[in-house]
């Protein structure tokens, strides 16, 4: 099992700080955003402390990590040409940063069709990916399974496979399975994960999965919402998520927790839950008082 969480990247230490944060959770891997996920302001590659980060990773045996593109990139927007153009340009730069940092995987939300319908959204995503990917692109883009909130594209394996079909260099495409999003999109993560994987394999082999986002969900099956819960504290529950974490088929795939920070009783402070959640998943025993 390769287990970690998303971590920050900011301040003077940048990527060095990201690796230190991952180590503080006893993680085997991690995921980072190259800047704030809500905007496209980014530091120069030379300011990211990449050498220091990679050397600490090597010392401490962290072999791999993934990068997540910001949510505001929307290749599916056919209503505002500026949004689409910004997405294409930013995605190119994000691929450069991902390569420079030594990661092979950039996770991307496919996009939102903003009312024009999934067919038009998918065509626009295909067009954008074809503008960005070349036969020499050294990084894979992992399309994330989405909850179907608003007009999100990629709420089903079928929609994602249609994107793969249209992309010329689809050998550069991968999938990121997000358990909260799958639940919210109506896939039975809790009650029949084997059937979910059978459905997945109608479209993709296991090797297509570049990473897994392991999250519980605040909402019931099919809610189309996308609100993450701490492991064991949502509608999916600990047993189902722990089984997924220990699934043989996923043993070489990085699993990333994106669960919410916890409020400390009687204080304004919020703490990262990841060290506790990682330990609990490795051990395989749920502790309902873990955050007390
Ligand atoms: Fe995501
Ligand atoms: Fe996710
Ligand atoms: Zn989410």
Describe the protein in words.
The chain is α/β, with parallel strands linked by helices and 292 residues long. The protein contains nine helices and 14 strands. It has helices at residues 15-24, 50-60, 81-101, 118-132, 157-166, 179-184, 193-201, 238-245, 274-283, and strands at 2-7, 29-33, 66-68, 105-108, 111-112, 140-144, 152-153, 173-178, 209-214, 216-217, 228-229, 254-257, 262-263, 270-271. The strands form four sheets. It has an eight-stranded parallel beta barrel, surrounded by four helices. Strands 5-7 form a two-stranded antiparallel ribbon. β13 and β14 (270-271) form a beta hairpin. α1 runs parallel beside α2 (50-60). It is globular, with a radius of gyration of 18 Å. The protein starts with a strand and ends in a 9-residue tail after the last helix. The mean pLDDT is 97. The structure holds fe (iii) ion (2 copies) and zinc ion (ZN). Zinc ion (ZN) binds at residues 178, 180-181, 226, 228.
Number of strands: 14
Rg estimate, integer Å: 18 Å
- What is the CA–CA distance across the termini? 27 Å
Q: What spatial order of strands do you see in the largest sheet? A: 1-2-3-4-6-8-9-12
Which secondary-structure class do the elements indicate?
alpha/beta
Nearest-integer average pLDDT? 97
The ligands found in this model are: fe (iii) ion, zinc ion
The helix/strand series, from N terminus to C terminus, equals: EHEHEHEEHEEHEHHEEEHEEEH
- Largest sheet composition: 8 strands, parallel, barrel
Helix content: 25-40%
Low-confidence stretches: none
How much of the sequence lies in strands comes to: 15-25%
| Overall morphology | globular
Give the helix tally: 9
């Amino acid at each position: 099992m390769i287990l970690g969480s998303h971590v920050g990247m900011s301040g003077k230490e940048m990527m060095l700080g990201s690796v230190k944060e991952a180590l503080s959770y006893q993680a085997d891997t991690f995921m980072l955003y190259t800047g704030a996920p809500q905007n496209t302001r980014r530091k120069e590659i030379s300011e990211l402390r990449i050498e220091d980060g990679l050397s600490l990773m090597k010392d401490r045996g962290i072999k791999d990590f993934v990068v997540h593109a910001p949510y505001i990139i929307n290749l599916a927007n056919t209503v505002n040409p500026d949004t689409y153009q910004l997405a294409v340009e930013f995605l190119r730069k994000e691929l450069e940063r991902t390569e420079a940092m030594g990661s092979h995987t950039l996770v991307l939300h496919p996009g939102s069709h903003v009312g024009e319908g999934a067919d038009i959204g998918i065509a626009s995503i295909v067009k954008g990916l074809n503008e960005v990917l070349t036969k020499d692109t050294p990084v894979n883009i992992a399309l994330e399974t989405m909850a179907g909130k608003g007009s999100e594209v990629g709420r089903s394996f079928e929609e994602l496979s249609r994107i793969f079909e249209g992309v010329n260099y689809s050998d550069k495409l991968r999938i990121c399975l997000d358990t909260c999003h799958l639940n919210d999109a109506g896939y039975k993560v809790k009650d029949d994960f084997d059937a979910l994987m059978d459905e997945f394999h109608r479209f993709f082999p296991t090797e297509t999965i570049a990473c897994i986002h392991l999250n519980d969900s605040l909402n019931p099956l099919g809610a189309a919402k996308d609100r993450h819960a701490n492991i064991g504290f949502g509608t999916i529950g600990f047993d189902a998520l722990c089984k997924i974490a220990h699934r043989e088929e996923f043993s070489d795939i990085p699993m990333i927790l994106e669960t919410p920070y916890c409020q400390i009783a009687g204080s304004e402070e919020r703490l990262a839950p990841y060290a506790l959640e990682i330990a609990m998943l490795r051990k395989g025993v749920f502790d309902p008082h873990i955050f007390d």
